[in-house]
Design a protein that fits this description.
- This protein is mainly alpha-helical.
- It has one domain.
- Helix 2 runs parallel beside helix 5.
Length: 124
Amino acid sequence: MPFLSQFFGKPQKPTTTLHSLLDVVNYTASLASNPKAIDTILDTVRLITSELQRDEPLSAHQQEELIKVYLNLERYLTSKEPLRAFRADELRRKFTPELLEQLHKFEKKTNKGSLTESERGMVN
């Protein structure tokens, strides 16, 4: 068994900080063991990135949409991920203070945390 532990050790703690919402979404999506399970959640990201010009900042609307995507991914990872158990606070540890503040403001504005299952498909 020691041989297998080389490959299946404890997940390492994040050492870098995520600086943009796109970084956050990409990192969070990469944690899913089954990419097909989150594929439709990522449609919004694909649309946003296809419309962005190089070095163009995200609009307020695009930022809000990416926060919704992140919350959907967080909900999936904390409640449906089959291989690993995640907690929201663990996922948010890599955020910069500015991104955390932006996420908390959105949650306060919408008066809820992660989006529900039915809302996942309604992110437009």
